[in-house]
Amino acid sequence: MALAGLSLMAIASTRLVAEETSPASSKSDKAYEESAAGNHKEESPALNRIASFGNLVTLGPGETAPEIVVVGASADIHGTIEKEVFVMGGTVHLGSEARVGTNLVVIGGDVIAAPGARVGDNLAILGGRLEAESLALLVGGRTLLVQVPPLFGWTPAWVARGLAWGRPVPMEVFGVAVLAGLFMLSAIAVAGLFPGTTVRLRETAENGPLIAFFVGLLALVLAGPLFILLAVSVVGIVLIPFLVCGLAVSIFLGRMAVHGALGHRLAVAVALPWLSAPIPSVLAGTVILVAVYNLPLLGILVWGVTTPIGLGAALLAAARHLASRPVDDLVIPGELPAVGFWPRLGATLLDLLLVAGVLAIFRWPQGFVPVWILYHGILWSWKSTTVGGLALGLRIVRIDGKPMSAALATVRCLCAFLSFAAFFVGFFWAAWDARRQSWHDKITGTVIVRQSRPFSFVEAPTVPSADSNP
Question: What are the pLDDT digits (tens) for 413-454?
Fold first, then answer.
């Protein structure tokens, strides 16, 4: 009986404990299920990388995307971007719940941020404006804001409606239309005041477009490194404004050359002789090409081809005009053969590799210009050549037969800056000049010749005098 009573008491107590614990357990399970359901509800839908061309992009509240790239349209963001946002030619609207994980870059557009929006790292706005209550609360990193002056307030529309669609001259943008009109009036004025120059420009572009293209392309490619080199050297900064002005004038005249050549071709095709005159040909070519520049994609392609052709035609026309001037006969001491542009270029490239290598070893790139001047000045005055010239058998001689001096070598080196200040036309001059002289050769009365026998820095080369027989 006692055992039975103990058994009944144990069963009752177990049932009581079970009844007391089961509600708590069920509550805990229910809470866990509710928590899991809640967490599931809070997870935002993950989207793929969003890329759009010309269409508005909208990211709603609670939505997540890795990154957004928009060209030619705007972006309305209220959700979370895990990485970056890049918008060109449009406006970015950031809602109060918008979160950008890393960087936000906008070119040619504005950023309008509501209170509570957040950019994790950096914000860059080029050619637009920023509307936000607090920049410190909006951006976690650095901010780059390059606003457009009121005079160029049309540039965001130019980027959005023009460049983003491959249309370099969208005439519906007021500022672009004004610039196109000013170019047309200026071209007509130049063609009327300088008809001979206009004809030479268009003939150069029309007769040798391929050569003009490569010359212009070379000038454009070398212009960037040249500006950087002058800026790094500090002393060459004063030349940069002159180079920029020279490039702008050359591009303008080159545009006239291409437009005039197109108008002249049209005059020949339709058999209208009056259309081949300087003013009508330039006007007709301008109207045709401006219409082509308005076409999507095709416009930017035609612009990219005609720009180097025009620049090259302007440089070649200027060089040929100067080379055609009458000059006295050149007497090279010892009748040594003068060399043109390509051997000079080869020697210069070897010298460039040598100087750049030495500066790289010493980690002193900003010393390129002074080292380059000292390198040439010392070697020219000492042996009338450089290491590159020695490798190719080239040497500088004076027309009067006298030996090179330190003063003349220094002057020649400084005058070489004039040759590249005109976008390297002074160097190219040796390619078509009858005497194979560059601009700095003409200024200093020198010429580069090829030695009849090898020579070195150890033994000075012997050169017959000007009045001796070879």
Answer: 878 877 776 667 778 888 877 788 888 888 888 999 887 665
Q: Are 397 and 383 in contact (CB under 8 A)?
A: no
* Domain range annotation of the chain: 50-156, 166-323, 333-450
Instruction: Report in angstroms the alpha-carbon separations of 147 from 110, 111, 124, 126, 127.
Output: 10, 12, 11, 6, 5
What is the model's pLDDT at position 425?
Answer: 75
CA distances from 326 to 140, 322, 330, 434 (A): 68, 9, 12, 11
Asked if 62 and 45 touch (Cβ cutoff 8 Å), the reply is yes
